[in-house]
Amino acid sequence: MVGRVYRKIKTTIFKLLFPRFKSAVLYEVPRIYFKNRLTLGEKVHINDNVFINAVGTVSIGNYNVLSHGVTIVSTGLETSKWVRRVEDEDNHIDKPIVIGDNVWIGTNATICAGVMIAPNTIIAAGAVVNKNLTEEYCIYGGVPAKKIKELK
């Protein structure tokens, strides 16, 4: 009981401090880097242990669900420069992530930089999305994520 009340107080304060989360349904305060580069749609459900790094911009559509432990990272390393890397050289690449409306991202799924996820899709638990998922009404899963089933 005390834990639930404490979580409710935390999420209410978070919503007051960051008005863009006003319509979001928060089960816990998410860990978000670069909040100003995050666009959030209406009625997005965000569960606990969600991490979003929006340095390359992240756009999350309306009526989405981010399940427990989802990771969304819009930055990464340039692997072609890794071998001949120089100490002061910045090897990071920032790419936008766009998640369409009505997408359910399952527990512990990871969304990598530069991907677009079509509306009305489900990402299975533990999936790693590293390429665009363009077909609507599908379930995607695996490492890397591939189409598993159509929902029509």
Overall average residue pLDDT? 90
- Counting helices, strands and paired strands, the structural category is mainly beta
Please give the count of helices: 1
Rg: 16 Å
Helix and strand run: HEEEEEEEEEEEEEEEEEE
Distance between the termini: 41 Å
Q: What fraction of residues sit in β-strands? A: 25-35%
Q: Please mark out the parts with pLDDT under 50 across 5 or more consecutive residues, or reply none.
A: none
- Sheet of most strands: 7 strands, mixed
The tally of strands reads 18
Shape: globular
Can you give the helix content as a percent range?
Answer: 10-25%
Widest sheet: strand ordering:
1-4-7-12-15-17-18
From the structure provided, what is the oligomeric state, counting identical versus distinct chains? single chain
Can you describe this structure?
With 152 residues, this protein is mainly beta. The protein contains 1 helix and 18 strands. Strand 17 (138-141) and strand 18 form a beta hairpin. The longest helix is centred in the N-terminal third of the chain and has 16 residues, at 2-17. The chain is globular.
